[in-house]
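Input chain follows. Return structure tokens only.
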Amino acid sequence: MVKVMINELVCKGCGLCVRACPKSVLALAKVKLNAKGYHPAEVVNQEACIGCASCARTCPDVAIRIEKE
């Protein structure tokens, strides 16, 4: 099983990870804001994740980690 971990404090809500994900696992939060005032990325469909790490490689702030169990 694969788990996507997002550091919401670092995320600036650029959306690059959302566009990079081939399985629509991520989305930008619509209501939640982080301490910097951005809508961070959040996991919306963990079960669909295939562990390709496209989101983590695309993130310019290194806010995403992929954990494989």
